[in-house]
């Protein structure tokens, strides 16, 4: 992994101006892991106003001594590089923001305020050579795959409780085999309640980073084990240990996490992952009885209402709330080939929305695997996909023509009768064979020719056209069936 020229250029300009300059933060961690950083950060002893003088294409609009330099790079991760003056932070009286932010004198003082040792390293580039500045032994923790707080973990978490969620997020996003250091883990458990000081927007963002990673299932389990989940998703934790009935192998908690795991491992979109996690969230509150005959009547309705409440609390956008709530509400849809008719499929599409039908099927697949079923997409679901496409596509119909029945009656000088439909069928066959003929003037001329035809010739042509169109529709249906491997 090479350090981008855009970053090297910024470091060089700062140093030529007489200042210290280092690459810092998560990009150093990713660089050492051989991963491409999502962004690059630089720290320096230059003050913001001094940075602005060095870089003409830059701006400064915050209270944290951070200047953003515009690079015009083709790489979107390098178009904006943040340069922050060495800083130290005062106490966090409100557990959200430092009471004051002050300039620090040294790099070590700046690194000491960071969350974890693996994020508290810096890179110094001098004469083309790279030196790792590592006062808190983060490189060793990186090698051993250990997440360790910088200094006293309790102090770090009380400064900003969101760091506890970040610890869990790093645990599941950095790869397999990572652990949280013992004292750091204990501090999370002992101070988990302080997460309530954090805004729901910040909690939501960290929660989604966990949901959207491959190890989402492990992440949710860690949130519960560390005592964090109950402070922002108590409804989900209510599922823990709630047994189900004879139709399920796993309890509500394990089932929900396994459903999420399938969605994550198959790279399903965020809305499906959330729905997979929440789809049975109403079961603990609707459970009646115990053992193999326990029931959960109406849990999908209750669950949809609970999901909406949760997502509103976490400040999700309305579009995402509506989508996930809809998936939870209708996840129990019934479908059986040969038993459920086209009209029922159309009603389901109307309730769910055509744009959400693929998500609903993905949710059903996750639900099945979460229940211990090995086959995620059985014949029934493939057949449903076929039916959805069949009833949703535009039918071959005279409505496609650029003339109407009134035009036929006027040209043929007839009243409402079967002949109107027959004439339109004849014209539709012509247009299907050559779409360029679907022009009003041409079709009117064809109607005039029909007016001069003998009745038996007209009926014969109408019959042949109808039969031809039926064959086209049948072939189209056969192709759709082959697409989904149904018969």
Number of strands: 11
The geometry reads as elongated
Mean pLDDT: 92
Structural class call reads alpha+beta
What is the name of the CATH superfamily of the largest domain?
A: Beta Polymerase, domain 2
Radius of gyration: 32 Å
**Number of discrete helical segments:** 23
CATH topology of the largest domain: Beta Polymerase, domain 2
Helix content: 40-55%
Number of structurally distinct domains: 4
Q: Would you state the CATH class of the largest domain?
A: Alpha Beta
Stretches with pLDDT under 50, minimum 5 residues: none
Q: Main beta sheet, described?
A: 7 strands, mixed
Keywords summarizing the entry:
single chain, 487 residues, alpha+beta, Beta Polymerase, domain 2, Hydrophobic Seed Protein, 4 domains, 7-stranded mixed β-sheet, two-stranded antiparallel ribbon, 11 strands, 8% strand, elongated
How do the strands and helices of this protein lay out in sequence?
Layout: H1 5-16, E1 21-24, H2 26-33, E2 41-44, H3 48-54, E3 58-59, E4 66-70, E5 80-85, E6 87-89, E7 101-103, H4 107-111, E8 122-126, E9 129-133, H5 138-144, E10 146-147, H6 153-159, H7 162-173, E11 179-180, H8 182-191, H9 200-211, H10 216-225, H11 234-237, H12 252-265, H13 270-278, H14 283-286, H15 299-313, H16 318-329, H17 342-352, H18 357-370, H19 379-392, H20 405-412, H21 418-433, H22 440-451, H23 455-483
